[in-house]
Amino acid sequence: MRLFFILLLTVLTTSLRLSAQNLLPPIHNYKIFEYRADSKNWGLSTNEAGELFAANNSGLLHYNGEKWHLYKLPDNTTIRSVAHINDRIYTGSYEEFGYWVKNTYGVLEYTSLTHLIKDHTFTNEEFWQIMPYGDDVLFRSFNGIYLLRDNEVKVIAPDFVINYISGYRDKIVVAAGHNRLYELVDDKLEPLKEYKLFSDKIIVGMAEIEEGLLVGTRRNGCFILNDRGVSPFKTLIDDQLSQHQLNQILPISESMIAFGTIKNGIYLYDKNKKSSQKVNRQVGLQNNTVLSMTQYQDQLWVGLDNGIDRIQLNYPLTYYTDYTGAVGTVYDLAVYKNILYMASNTGMYYFKDDVLHFVEGSQGHVWDLNITDGDLFCGHNTGTYKVEENTFEKISDISGGYQIVKVPESDASFVQGTYIGLSKYEKDDSGNWVVTPITGINKPAKYLCFEDAHTLWVAHPYKGLYRLVLNDSYDQVVDKIEFTKENIPTNYNVKVFNIRNQIALDIEGVWHRYDPILKKIKLFDEFQAYNHKNLVYHDDSSFWFIDNEGVKKVLFSDLKEVNYILDDLQLQKRLTPEAEKIVKLNDSTYSFTLNDGFGKLDISEFRHHFENFELQQPKLVSFKAKGSTYPLDKDTFEIPYKLASDITVNIASPALLDATYYYDLSGPIDQEAYLENGQINFQNLPYGNYELNVFSVGIDNERSKANILFFEIAPPWYLSKVSFVLYIVAFIVALFLLRRYNRSKIEKRHLELKTKFIKDQEERLAKKEKEKLEKEIKKKQKELARITMSMAEKNKVILELKEMLLVNKSQFTNQKRFGSFIKKLDNSINDDEDWKHFEVNFKELHEDFFENLLKMYPKLTPKDLKLCAYLKMNLTSKEIAPLMAISNRGVEIHRYRLRKKLGIDSSQNLSNFLIKFN
To answer: Which of 66, 580, 623, 850 can bridge 678 by disulfide, Cβ–Cβ 3.0-4.6 Å?
Structure first.
């Protein structure tokens, strides 16, 4: 058992002594799942804008700075080489080579060149290298060199293997398989002087540098070829290059050369400083096998056996990254006696002689490092320790040591916040630290800040804010004010600072300050621009904030004119969560605590770098409206209204890393916004003409030159020009029809009025006629009645006279004369002239009465007709009797007979029947 513990202790001690790495620039990994192609990337090339093209097993990979796209060859073969030359992207594959160009939609299209080869048969060749040669283009396979010139391809096929070709002083140097170098002269390979140094060596790469042509071999180091001959190119990394098999050479500056290896990543060698940096999987590369490299400005692109990486060269921000996970999350840093110390959640570490050491006994969570009165204090989960290189001496058993602050106007007194309250630190006469708990407060105290010599502000890690007054010996709280929701907006997540002799408070992201005169907390007006930004470091002239909303951008300000935004995506992702901290190492150097190491920034280099950095104008990648893609060569994009509900504009600044954009849309409606990616989307824009200005955004919100796009959304069909023409035609037709309708209406009205007038006239005339007729009828009725009455009276008188005569007949002597007289009387009664006169007047009133009556009742006699006429006049039997010269009884009998002839029963009035009969 004892042996087991000894072995375990040995393993732990060994694992905590980590080999150091140099501070390295940011390394950005592009993994297979991001670019969605095969793992192997045989060749890389960039164009003038910084777009990347990769020769991948699956095809040609294109990265525009925002999105990846894979283009496959017609036969889906592996692409082994790629080169951007004169706006073309040339690629080489198995028995195939050609070029790609962008069409008007921004999509790459392929054109094969192998049909230009005459009288030649491929022999299982793959093209591994492409390079320009004047106006020509060279394609290299192991079997030969194919020269593209004036739209023809000439084949240079020696009887030996060709390993590599390189430009050197306007010449083409060829490395052959049997350890010789050749020069391409007049389309032929002419051997250079045979150099014994290359015997039994495999040449894997060549590149022109200041000293001459740098020739690299797989296991035997590098050589320089120049006018003086061939000589070894000695470096400090010769053994590493031989051991790990050199595979790629790329000069990246006048002094810096990148060497890519098969087994151990990249060596960045500075031939002037005779120094190197190793960039391999241990420090951030995805893979140690480097298949290809290319450079664009300060970016080194690396094609790996498993992925693509981009290294930011000459970047003012560098990183130490613990890829083993042993260090853990870093919470604080301090430079003490020229040694860098790190506090992490696993313990405490320090660098010495480029080796990272673990401070023995410091296992556990370390919160703070404080240099106090010439000593380095470590605030640990288990207490507070004094650190001296590899010694870890506990000076306080109070757990959870947080911040230590100096008491104003005192050279030897300090106060520390802990898990359970406050502690006082002082040195005794022997120079030893004496720690005394401060009574009167027993709550965790993370943030401390003195207002004056005895007034101390304390903020709880989560909830609580206090203003304490300490006694003269600083070991007791004599007065305590606890701020609650009655005094401040909230007592959660409060941080307290002394900023230029003012007590400043970050309360849930909003800045406040304490007014000592009013004795109240109010808004800090001068700091409102920094709301929702955590203050992580400050002194009299430097203020560092971290945005706590969304992306954690780092802001540097002097509160006057200088403002820098450190918009580094890797830094933002790696900042220590909820415990971001920036430490000033010297006048211009700052460090950032990270969740897997730390970052280092030289603010002077940062200013110089970005003051001389020109932001790239964003490029238009695609313009789409509801899925329809538009050609990019348009001055104005014309969009039908039905497609305008969803417009997508894709832009990119490939020269920038993790670019930020800003757009400003003006037109029928205005919009503006910042973008973290290159996609702008507009929904349901109204029709009209728009101008879209797109910018790349740098530090201090600096903007690039605008890329200006114009587009026009056509009005809906019912508001189009054709529709307006139709509307005008329809309006004219409507006016015509309306006029015609109105005219018709007027004419109709006129006709109606005319008809009404005529009708009224006719009615008036008819009325007059009727009135006249009625008068005439009344007159005739009166006349008829008069005639009838006259006849009746006459007959009555005659009948009375006759009766008187008949009574006195005996008195007449002359009976004959008497009889003649009686006869005359009878003739007077039955005078036809009277009847005719009556009949004429009757017919004028009752036209066709007799004719119609006879038609229906042909058996009627003239006497019956007379009775009918008298009854129609509504005469009574008494009135009829004289007219017919019969008695009343005779009239009744006649009426009875007439009723029978007419077929009228006794229930029906005979006079009414005849009155109604027409």
So the answer is: 66
